[in-house]
Structures are given as C-alpha cells and as structure tokens.
C-alpha cells in the first residue's frame, strides 16, 4: 500500500538581482517565473471528547455484589463487569459508595455497608474501594464515587422498625419518616458532617475522579410527612416562606461541597443527577438545579431523562433535554439514559429509542456524553442495547467538565507508515489517540487510545494522532498521513 505524508513545505523566495532593472518604464513589474503554490496539509475535524458511563448501583445489591459475599467472587464479578464496559468503550463508572448512610471503606463516621457482607458494620476483609479504583484506572476508566447525601435507611412500609443509629450520628440530626430515615437538611451540623465524610473519602482515596450525588434531597411526599417548623423558627428568620428556607438549605449544601472540593481536592469532578421534572425537583425536593448551574457550583449536571421521545408531549425526552440545556448555563451536561426501560411498553421494543436519544443529544454542543441506568440492564443486553453500543467508536474523556488543567501537551511527531503499522513519537508520559477518516470532508473517528507508539492499520484514508495527558487534555493533531 502506498502512502505519502501531507504537510506544509516552506518555500524560500530567491533574491532577484537587479529588481529595479526589471521594472522597465511601462512594464508591469510582475515576476515572469512565480513560485509553485505551497501544498497545504488537509484539515481533519476530530470529534470532541464524550463521556460514556454507567451507574453501578449497590443499594439492595442491585448491580454489585449481587448477593455474592465472598471476597474472591466479589472481585471477579467487579472486574468482569469492567471488562465488559471496556469492550464497549465506556470510559467511566459511577459507583455507589454510600447508598444508605454507610460506607464501602473503613470510615470513622459511618459503618461498613451491609451490602458488602450482608451484615452492617462487618469488615469485608479487604480494601474494597482501593481495589475498585485501581481496577477501573487500569482499564483507562474514571471512578466517580456516587453518594446519597441524606438517606440513612429505607423501609417499604412502617411495620418494620429502623435499625440502631451509628454511634457517631446524634439522634437529633435524624428524621424517621414513614418510609425513610434521613439526615435533616436544615441543620448546619448535617452539612458539616457531609463535608467531613467527603473529605475523609477523598483523603483516603486520592485516586477518586469525581463525587456524584443522585436525585434524593428533601423527601418526596410518598416517603412520609416531616415537621420542620422548629427548624424554620430557629434558622429561617431571613426567609419569607418555609419553601425558600428549604430550597436554600439544599443550596447551602451543594455550595459548601463545591467550595470544599475546589479548595481541598481540586480536579475532582462534582456532579449531580436530578430527576427530569424541573417543577418536581424544585417544589417537592427543593432542589434548584438552575441556581446551582447559574452559580457554577457543579462541574457536570446529569439529568435523568428517562422518558421516550414524544414530539407532542412536554414531558417527552426532547422537551426536557431542551429545558436542561437552556438552564444549565455554562455547566457542562450529560444525559442520563433509561437502559432499564428498553423493551418496556410505552418506551421502545428495542434499543432504537436509545439510539435516537443519543443522536438528538449529540446535536447540542452543551451535551458532553451519556450515562446509563443501570449496569445490570447492560449486562443483560436488555432489548439489544449492547448490540447498539457495539457500533460506537472509542471516545476521549471530555474537557472542560472533567479537568481544570492548564498543562500544555506536546504534539505527536514523526508519524509514518511501514509494513502495515503506523508509528509515531511522543514526549513525556502520555497516551496517544489515533484518528481515522476515509475522506477529509467528514469527521474522523477514534480508532484507539493507547499507551504505545504504534498501531496496525489497513484501511485507505487519512490518519492523525494526538497526545493525551493524565488530565485528558489533548495536544494539537500531528501531521496527517494518507494511505492510498
């Protein structure tokens, strides 16, 4: 196969002796032998980074450990799941490390989660979180620690008593409602406890890439009535209504977490995944997502857009995506997709619905990727969703929502082709992203993200390479190589 490098050639202009003499009276003064045009390197458009992630739910052992309480089996199950995700080019996992006021690590604030061993407070005998973070990173996947900020315990009805509180939790901090036990969002002590928990987590495990909250804030009405009149009297004198008081209690929590992360753990992504109904979020959960985004408290917002596409409904996927895009302001946004609904009546008989949603989201420059709920539905290939995802190319983790780096990355050089392989040279500790397009007028795709400096290729077309540092910042593209 023939190839030729395409790049700009510097052209030296010769000094013309007797230039003034060439301009005879009445002459044009033009050069009778103009230089050849300079060949230009073709312009190749490379795709921007895209988050491709999944929620791994541990509450009720839904996704992990799935009833397996043997440490060896747990580790194998986790790595098998990561290998599957890696095969389909996922680049992040959002793992639930604090589902019920508990911990997947040794904490001075909360007990070991019962979802590891089956027994709350029981040490599993190995460092669960250290293992999980390292295994994710070995597969070039980010590990985001998913935390429920207020929930301590749930019960399906009020017949079964709640368990004993952890000794470190003062009783006066806690609400026991009909279906949920939770921290009282009005208390400054509760906000400080959450900060302490997150700080402990990130200090113990500096490899964590992100802190993530789901959509639980104040309890929904179906979980039970609560009485915060005394809190409003004590803390709410500056607010005209108790509704404003509740909204600002959640605002203070989100703001304080954001400030703490940026001061003590810079580079850790802070994300929240609210429900799709903005009115419900604000009026029932007291979660003002617009305010969070407008004030820049989040690095990423991930609305759970679990509806089907319905052009005539204000509750359809497109309409709710449009609302969040409009009111995310400068906060990057990713879409939460309902993998669990694939095949459900009223949603889609197969994964075509997800395909269409991804296509819609990609058209908006404010959308930085997708995250799927939940892992087990991918493992089960529900409605052929993995078959659909198998058509996706690898993707680079996006900026700016996953890094605040300003480091410069040296570009790849000396791109060449021989005996069926591309080779190149990098500078420093970087990975390389290899792009390909069959024609220069269409966007390139990622062929591979590799720590090596060569790749076997065979397709005719155009190739280029970028360097990628540990913060997912890319260099400028290399020269472009055409295989003919």
Q: What does this protein look like?
A:
With 484 residues, the protein is an alpha/beta fold. Helices cover 26% and strands 20% of the residues. It is built from 13 helices and 19 strands. The strands form 4 sheets. The protein has an 8-stranded parallel β-sheet with strand order 10-9-8-4-3-2-12-11. The longest helix is centred in the middle third of the chain and has 23 residues.
Q: Give the overall form.
A: globular
Strand order of the largest sheet: 10-9-8-4-3-2-12-11
Please describe the biggest sheet, giving its number of strands, its sense, and whether it closes into a barrel. 8 strands, parallel
Poorly predicted segments:
4-29
Chain-wise SSE layout:
Layout: E1 3-6, H1 19-22, E2 51-56, H2 71-87, E3 92-98, H3 114-117, H4 128-138, E4 142-147, E5 151-154, E6 174-176, E7 180-183, H5 188-204, E8 210-213, H6 229-235, H7 242-264, E9 269-272, H8 278-283, H9 289-294, E10 300-301, H10 317-326, E11 333-338, H11 352-362, E12 367-373, H12 375-379, H13 385-389, E13 413-418, E14 421-425, E15 431-437, E16 445-450, E17 454-456, E18 461-468, E19 480-483
Helix pairs in contact: 2-4, 5-7
């Amino acid at each position: 196969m023939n190839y030729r490098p395409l790049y700009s050639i510097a052209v030296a202009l010769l000094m013309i002796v007797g230039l003034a003499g060439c301009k005879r009276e009445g002459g044009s003064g033009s050069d009778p032998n103009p230089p050849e045009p300079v060949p230009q390197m073709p312009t190749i458009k490379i795709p921007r980074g895209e988050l491709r992630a999944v929620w791994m739910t541990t509450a009720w052992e839904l996704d992990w450990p799935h009833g397996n309480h043997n440490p060896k089996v747990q580790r194998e199950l986790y790595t098998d799941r990561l290998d599957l995700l890696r095969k389909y080019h996922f680049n992040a996992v959002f793992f639930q490390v604090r589902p019920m006021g508990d911990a997947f690590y040794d904490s001075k604030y909360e007990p070991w989660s019962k979802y590891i061993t089956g027994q709350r407070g029981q040490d599993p005998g190995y460092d669960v979180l250290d293992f999980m973070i390292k295994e994710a990173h070995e597969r070039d996947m980010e590990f985001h620690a998913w935390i429920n900020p207020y929930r301590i315990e749930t019960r399906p009805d009020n017949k079964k008593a709640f368990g004993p509180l952890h000794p470190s939790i003062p009783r006066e901090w806690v609400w026991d409602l009909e279906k949920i036990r939770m921290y009282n969002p009005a208390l400054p002590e509760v906000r400080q406890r959450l900060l302490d928990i997150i700080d402990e987590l990130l200090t113990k495990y500096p490899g964590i890439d992100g802190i993530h909250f789901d959509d639980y804030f104040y309890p929904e009405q179906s979980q039970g009535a609560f009485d915060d009149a005394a809190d409003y009297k004590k803390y709410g004198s500056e607010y005209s209504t108790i509704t404003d008081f509740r909204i600002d209690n959640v605002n203070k929590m989100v703001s304080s977490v954001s400030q703490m992360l940026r001061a003590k753990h810079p580079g850790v992504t802070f994300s929240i995944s609210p429900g799709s109904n903005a009115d419900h979020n604000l009026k029932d959960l007291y979660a003002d997502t617009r305010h969070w985004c407008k004030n820049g408290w989040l690095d990423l917002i991930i609305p759970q857009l679990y509806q089907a596409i319905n052009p005539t409904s204000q509750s359809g996927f497109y309409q709710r995506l449009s609302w969040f895009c409009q009111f995310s302001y400068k906060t990057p946004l990713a879409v939460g997709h309902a993998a669990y609904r694939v095949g459900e009546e009223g949603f889609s008989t197969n994964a075509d619905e997800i395909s269409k949603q991804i296509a819609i989201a990609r058209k908006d420059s404010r959308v930085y990727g997708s995250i799927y709920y939940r892992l087990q539905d991918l493992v089960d290939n529900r409605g052929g969703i993995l078959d659909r995802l198998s058509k996706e190319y690898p993707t680079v983790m996006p900026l700016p929502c996953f890094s605040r780096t300003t480091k410069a990355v040296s570009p790849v050089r000396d791109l060449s082709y021989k005996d069926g392989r591309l080779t190149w040279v990098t500078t420093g500790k970087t990975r390389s992203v290899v792009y390909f397009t069959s024609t220069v007028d269409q966007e390139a795709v990622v062929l591979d993200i590799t720590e090596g400096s060569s790749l076997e290729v065979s397709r005719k077309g155009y190739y280029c390479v970028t360097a990628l540092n540990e913060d997912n910042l890319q260099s400028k593209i290399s020269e472009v190589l055409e295989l003919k």
